[in-house]
Amino acid sequence: MQYSFLIILLVFMIVMMFVQSRKAKQQQQEKQNFYATLEPGTEVITIGGVIGKVVSVDEEYEEIVIDSEGSHLRFTFKAVSRAYVRPAFVHDDEVDENGNPLPQDSPEPSDSEPEQIESAEVVETSTEGLPYGAREVEESQVEATTDTEESSADQPSKADQQ
């Protein structure tokens, strides 16, 4: 009885090792095929996270030159992780709580939009069409504030008068 359990355990371990080695060989073959099909213009990502387009491939020395935003970088084949595909970005406002896309209806005007338009008209009429009207008002307010500070500095304080 004890020997049968050990034999079953040993057979199970041998089967697991066989399956793992087949899987590793398959992944290695896929990598070799990937390196063989690399050609200029393919966008790749390295194991360090550098993203760029392949400029040249040297199969003899197993080197690859990548152009990443104007910088040409040379890597070995083993440094290239995979072909890069930019993930699609979906904003949280475009999906519901389950991640399903929201229907694309024409947006209806909200109650706050007319108020914004009215306030824009008020600002536009208050400047009376002057392109730098607001800037002139701000500068005059700054000058008036500066003048009052200077005049108060010229007047002696109550402690100095006593």
From TrEMBL:
<protein>
    <submittedName>
        <fullName>Preprotein translocase subunit YajC</fullName>
    </submittedName>
</protein>
<keyword id="KW-1133">Transmembrane helix</keyword>
<dbReference type="Pfam" id="PF02699">
    <property type="entry name" value="YajC"/>
</dbReference>
<feature type="compositionally biased region" description="Polar residues">
    <location>
        <begin position="153"/>
        <end position="162"/>
    </location>
</feature>
<dbReference type="GO" id="GO:0015031">
    <property type="term" value="P:protein transport"/>
</dbReference>
<comment type="similarity">
    <text>Belongs to the YajC family.</text>
</comment>
<keyword id="KW-0811">Translocation</keyword>
<keyword id="KW-0812">Transmembrane</keyword>
<feature type="compositionally biased region" description="Acidic residues">
    <location>
        <begin position="108"/>
        <end position="118"/>
    </location>
</feature>
<keyword id="KW-0472">Membrane</keyword>
<keyword id="KW-0653">Protein transport</keyword>
<dbReference type="GO" id="GO:0005886">
    <property type="term" value="C:plasma membrane"/>
</dbReference>
<feature type="region of interest" description="Disordered">
    <location>
        <begin position="90"/>
        <end position="162"/>
    </location>
</feature>
<keyword id="KW-1003">Cell membrane</keyword>
<dbReference type="InterPro" id="IPR003849">
    <property type="entry name" value="Preprotein_translocase_YajC"/>
</dbReference>
<keyword id="KW-0813">Transport</keyword>
